[in-house]
Amino acid sequence: MALPYSDGNPGIQLNEAITVRSVFDTLRTRFRASGITTPDLDARCLIAGAMGFETEDFFRNEDETVSPDQLSEALLYMDRRAKREPVAYILGQKEFWGRTLSVNASVLIPRPDSETIVENLLDLSENGILPGTQTPAKILDIGTGSGCLLIGLLDEFPSGFAVGVDVCPSAVAIARKNLFLADLENRGVFVCGNGAQSLEGEFDIIVANPPYICTDELSGLEPEIMQYEPVSALDGGPNGLKFYPMIAEIAAHLLSPSGILVAEHGSGQQEDVIKIFSSILDERRFIGFRDISGRPRTVAALPKKR
Q: pTM of the predicted model, to two decimals?
């Protein structure tokens, strides 16, 4: 007897031993039919999640027998992914800068491209533009979301202390959870609301990954993004640049004279972001950086050379 998919298509044959491999074949076939571009990877990730092993251990476990409970969970994951729900939301976690972070639909899923911000700051520290990573840096993360940037920076600046700000209470709750799971709760705090303007003192590092997608481009995004990720974390206004003046104003108020601001941006926006920043932060010089794929990805505001 075949175990049917929820849509009635034939699935796993119950008169055969149900192994990890046979479940993988079922999920992969369903994902291909659903137009998912990474069917093999997604099937491995979701089966690993249902079985309780790491994705990289899939091939050494593919002959393992799947229990009824594990099978039910894998098929539930399959149905959710076939509706284009992101794998990270299904499993409730995502890797970023060597950490496994909790995520849900209230926060943007951390992307590898955003690790460019952490890499930029490490490069600037190594080149002497930013004080060394062992200094007690004070860090501000504007629009912290899951807290991924804040936590990554605390890992790399072990004497640092960080403040994360976000307007979404449920995002702040996830960020706090991630800080606790990272055992960093004594080195960071979160402020809910437009709290950056009310902060006092100076910060050595300010980072931001604001919404930067043009409003009229949102409808053309992949279903995984448009149907599931928070629009408030994506919509950057008519030209995608809505939030950069605010970021610059915050930096003008809170960035120390020797401090550095690094902000992520979208495709084709680097020159515009530099123009916005330079109009407000006139005592700074600016450098654009590329991500691992070679695309312009971030802008850094640095102290002017003396």
A: 0.92
